[in-house]
């Protein structure tokens, strides 16, 4: 498996500038554009030279650290003057391609640190420091939509707490990370916490793990010496009808001799509203920190920072901006943004394989556009894909009728003929006329088509209420429907 170093140092035909790319207006524009949108003053702290060893050699999907080479750190010191000499990316070099995909992989821990989450991290860190310093238990509730950097930020803070306690000569807290998606049952959370406290002690058979923890934290003699920093991720999975597990969990931090510093992370924003009032009444309201969805600028900033680990430009700046704009408008989910960027690289890669051009190029706006359209399908496209097969065939028949005749309306009888034709060509038995009209009525109720008010069934007027392009788009990846759909005649 290639490492990032091998990728950046591999003999690069890329060093030879491509004559086409060097003279196109686009590449000229690229050189004139400020090199990185993310080169803002507030991110300077993340550009310090990295000291961690390069470790990009794991299989894809396992967390890895991306490290910038000393060369790239030097470049940052010399600014734009040196940046102009940035070697060109050679996408035909498998090691370089692999390094790009790794930089954009969701499982890759970015070596640049966590940009755009300074305030949230600072607040979590302060909370932890106060607990460790005063040796008191406490609880924190982190919430935000998926992909807003909660897990990444809290993991980074966890590392910083240990380092800080060490430097201060304080007892470093023990650490426990639990992902609730891995629990067999919700109450297993208590046995996991208990196991961490009782590494050597024998568990008492009579009491449940929760009761043992409660009793342990209620008496000075039985209270453990070291603090335990417990990070409970994907806490949404702990929601039971009465929310008892959640309440019991947070209540553990209120016992007089509790040693738990609890950080709960949840995706459901409204979980706080649902369970905080009860916790407040139980006098154990946690500190709440909300991670807001990423904005367009934050998404571009994060992507650019992740790509800084590479020695070459991979994307046209406009392509990243386009992705950031779309994702921010939809959800602000960084996981989605990274997925779209990777998909754009794959689109670029496959077009590169099909082309005999010598130039190398970068991932452009067009590649990003294709990648985005794969991810952000219109709602109607998704709903077409969820329809039963015969109803999809009726829509297919409608698309064929209107594409072929350039008409705006047809009759139920004509549509039925087109539907039977599709059934015949795809060797699927057609339903009878009565069932066919029923299907059309269902499609009409759902807003795909409109049925006219004729008493004579076969003469009922049928008009399409959605775009033909939505039907063809929905079926573009289906071999079955690709055969059924007639190609438009120009
Ligand atoms: N501020 C950031 N800087 C760099 N990468 C980020 C940042 N925020 C999120 N990511 C990346 O986005 C993906 C989702 O982040 P994650 O922390 O798992 O989100 P959440 O826990 O909120 O669902 C991860 O691959 C993570 O590395
Ligand atoms: Mg998470």
Automatic annotation (TrEMBL):
Residue ranges, annotated region (Disordered): 1-73
Keywords, comma-separated and alphabetical: Cell cycle, Cell division, DNA replication, Nucleus
Specify the domain of life of the species encoding this protein.
Eukaryota
Keyword Zinc among record annotations:
no
Tell me which SUPFAM superfamilies the record gives. P-loop containing nucleoside triphosphate hydrolases, Winged helix' DNA-binding domain
Q: Where is the composition biased (Low complexity)?
A: 1-26
Offer one example of a GO biological process linked to this entry: cell division
Q: Name one GO molecular function term.
A: DNA replication origin binding
> Domain Cdc6 C-terminal, which positions?
395-475
Any one GO CC term of this protein is: nucleus
- Say which family it is in: Belongs to the CDC6/cdc18 family.
| Protein name as annotated | Cell division control protein
Q: Which organism is it from?
A: Lolium multiflorum (Italian ryegrass)
